[in-house]
């Protein structure tokens, strides 16, 4: 038999490769926008017609190309961005594979105009189905314009496969946002069928978010900022109360590139596990900057998948950083999205020698010896009158600024040091606890120097109990019951109950078995009512079953949440003065005082102007 193998012509090879790189107009848009960024453009225009079917044009004011580069850039494996294999692990550009333009030119009619900054004339080139049709000098602005016409003109199957214009346009819009969001130092415009959809000015990350999604995002987001040896994490995550039923804006970027990474997305979502309701999702815009040698981007031609050498550590850092951001900022008002104005200080008087900065520290400070218990040391059951008189000091701005706190490095453990609530609108107060009143049997009202504090007693108590259970799993104060209580379940529920008994024991229950479906409870944690044990366990089992169906729910978190919900003081329960003060004090010792484990707001602070400008 004679030889049957031959080498495919470049045009065919390019068409095959194009199948992976360009599957719809939006992918061509992505490649062209990324090339413009790599060319150092400070201004990029995107023009599309008929959702990219008829025309996709990207015009930039970047470095431009010489006459011969303009020809070579359409060859396969033509790139100026890497030179050798080692460069693959030091990538600082969006592109590096040298295949995007070759792929696009294989399946469209392309017109390129490009001019180097120091040349008077540029070059114009027309290429169609990988064949150069014409190249000639032309007068054009410096930078590059690439117009991609009649995408898939030579692959009718692909063309027919495209969805209707509105869908293709929304894909393009999404790609535009992914690129523009994180490359916020660049001006962008986006024009579709003659209509200007976006006109974005260079600014910072937060400004870009509000340019793309509207100013109301200011009040929805908390800033994330964590610098570690493994990665620097910056960006914004939504406050828990703005979580939504669908996954909306969830953006992860690595080194200025949008990526999809289910594990890292899960890390962010896990940070919300005990504070937003099930099946609700946070919004986030997170930028992870890592050493390019610690990642591999060359996994798929679209470069949206990334492998990290430090994936596990990154997971913990990201989760912890998100948690910390929520804890610190979820009570704050709007983010300040405007750039900080430069301050022009008056010149110093002649001969003035600035004093050395003083560092004040407390030599007796011992981080392991707490004078003020943070979680559960003071019993927080409403019936235990041991209020911490210093709860209002959580609002003491001066105190938090002047006291030297150790600069704790970010642990690789998910749990971070307890963040203080953001208190920017609140003034210092005294050491004596403010008196409280109970409103309609369900809310606690107290006075702060700057306004009225209104607390939802049930949500607050739920938060307190949840954190106490979760953080102190070995319960030291099991109460022996005078008369043991029997509880009975269906066979299926009894199996589940058996499964969770070891954990329940950690929280202070003592439970024995009396046959297959009956159990005897001989001791309970302090907050439990004997008479409600059966309904408490029934409810825990129901919630446990539901929560376990979800992928990311932590088993003990789920149990603690359920128990806290059952044990929390209910609306209608009359509270003593000391009990109310105790709830307030304990709430402000929580890691996340502003939100209950089931996602309800625990408190609001009403300032006088809010009260009178209704
Ligand atoms: N807008 C532009 N301005 C200046 N040079 C450009 C522009 N677009 C492309 N080039 C040049 O053409 C080359 C080929 O571009 P192409 O997009 O095909 O490959 P790449 O960007 O190097 O890698 P990738 O295939 O991963 O995108 C680039 O390396 C760059 O030198
Ligand atoms: Mg490219």
How are the secondary structure elements laid out?
Layout (H helix, E strand, L loop, with lengths): L9 H12 L3 H14 L4 E7 L5 E6 L6 H6 L27 H7 L2 E7 L6 E7 L2 E8 L4 E7 L6 H6 L3 H18 L4 E6 L2 E6 L4 H9 L3 H4 E7 L4 E7 L11 E5 L2 E3 L2 H9 L13 E6 L5 E2 L10 E2 L2 H19 L67 H6 L33 E4 L3 E6 L2 E6 H15 L7 E10 L2 H16 L3 E4 L4 E7 L8 H17 L5 H13 L9 H11 L15 E4 L1 H5 L2
Parallel strand pairs: 1-7, 11-13
Antiparallel strand pairs: 1-2, 2-6, 3-4, 3-6, 4-5, 7-8, 9-10, 10-13, 11-12, 14-15, 16-17, 17-18, 18-22, 19-21, 20-21
Helix pairs in contact: 1-4, 2-6, 6-7, 9-10, 12-15, 12-16, 14-15
The protein binds adenosine-5'-triphosphate and magnesium ion.
Name the beta content range. Answer: 15-25%
Average pLDDT metric: 80
Question: Hetero groups bound?
Answer: adenosine-5'-triphosphate, magnesium ion
- End-to-end separation in angstroms reads 90 Å
For this structure, the quaternary state is single chain
Provide the structure class.
alpha+beta
The Cα radius of gyration reads 31 Å
Strands, total number? 22
Shape type: elongated
Strand order of the largest sheet: 5-4-3-6-2-1-7-8
Largest sheet: 8 strands, mixed
Spans of at least 5 consecutive residues with low confidence: 337-349, 357-430
């Amino acid at each position: 038999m004679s030889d049957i193998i031959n080498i495919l012509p470049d045009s065919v090879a390019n068409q095959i490769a194009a199948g992976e790189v360009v599957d719809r107009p939006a992918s061509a848009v992505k490649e062209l926008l990324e090339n413009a960024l790599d060319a150092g453009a400070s201004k990029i225009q995107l023009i599309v017609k008929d959702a990219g079917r008829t025309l996709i044009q990207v015009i930039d004011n970047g470095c431009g190309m010489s006459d011969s580069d303009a020809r070579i850039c359409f060859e396969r494996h033509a790139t100026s961005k890497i030179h050798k294999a080692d460069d693959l692990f030091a990538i600082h550009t969006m592109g590096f594979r040298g295949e995007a333009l070759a792929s696009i030119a294989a399946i469209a009619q392309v017109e390129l105009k490009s001019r180097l900054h120091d040349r008077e004339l540029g070059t114009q080139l027309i290429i169609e189905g990988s064949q150069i049709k014409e190249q000639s000098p032309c007068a054009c602005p410096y930078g590059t314009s690439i117009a991609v016409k009649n995408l898939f003109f030579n692959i009718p199957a692909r063309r027919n496969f495209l969805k209707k214009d509105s869908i293709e346009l929304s894909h393009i819009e999404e790609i535009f946002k992914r690129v523009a969001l994180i490359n916020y130092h660049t001006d962008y415009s986006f024009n579709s069928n003659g209509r200007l959809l976006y006109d974005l000015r260079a600014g910072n990350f937060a400004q870009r978010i509000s340019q793309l999604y509207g100013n109301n995002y200011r009040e929805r987001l908390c800033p994330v900022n964590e610098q570690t040896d493994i990665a620097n994490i910056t960006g914004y995550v939504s406050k828990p109360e703005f979580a939504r039923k669908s996954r909306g804006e969830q953006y992860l970027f690595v080194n200025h590139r949008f990526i999809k990474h289910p594990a890292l997305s899960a890390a962010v979502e896990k940070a919300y596990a005990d504070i937003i309701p099930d099946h609700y999702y946070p919004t986030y815009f997170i930028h992870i900057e890592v050493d390019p040698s610690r990642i591999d981007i060359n996994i798929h031609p679209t470069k949206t998948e990334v492998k990290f050498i430090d994936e596990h550590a990154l997971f913990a850092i990201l989760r912890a950083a998100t948690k910390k951001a929520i804890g610190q900022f979820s009570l704050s008002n709007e983010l300040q999205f405007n750039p900080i104005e430069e301050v022009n200080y008056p010149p110093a008087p002649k001969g003035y020698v600035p004093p050395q900065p003083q560092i004040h520290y407390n030599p007796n400070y011992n981080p392991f010896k707490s004078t003020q218990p943070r979680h559960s040391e003071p019993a927080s059951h409403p019936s235990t009158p041991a209020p911490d008189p210093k709860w209002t000091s959580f609002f003491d701005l001066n105190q938090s600024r002047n006291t030297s706190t150790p600069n704790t490095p970010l642990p690789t453990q998910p749990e971070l040091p307890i963040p203080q609530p953001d208190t920017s609108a609140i003034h210092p107060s005294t050491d004596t606890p403010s008196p409280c009143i109970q409103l309609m049997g369900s809310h606690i009202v107290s006075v702060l120097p700057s306004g009225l504090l209104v607390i939802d007693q049930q949500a607050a108590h739920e938060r307190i109990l949840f954190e106490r259970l979760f953080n102190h799993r070995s319960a030291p104060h099991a109460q022996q019951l005078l008369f043991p209580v029997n509880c009975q379940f269906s066979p299926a529920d009894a199996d589940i109950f058996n499964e969770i008994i070891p954990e329940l024991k950690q929280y202070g229950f003592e439970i024995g078995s009396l046959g297959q479906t009956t159990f005897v409870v001989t001791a309970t944690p302090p907050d439990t009512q004997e008479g409600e044990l059966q309904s408490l366990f029934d409810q825990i089992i129901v919630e446990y079953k539901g929560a376990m169906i979800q992928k990311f729910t932590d088993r003990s978190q789920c149990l603690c949440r359920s128990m806290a919900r059952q044990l929390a003081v209910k609306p209608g329960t009359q509270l003593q003065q000391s009990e109310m003060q105790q709830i307030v004090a304990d709430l402000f010792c929580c890691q996340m005082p502003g939100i209950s484990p089931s996602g309800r707001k625990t408190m609001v602070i009403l300032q006088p102007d809010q009260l009178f400008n209704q």
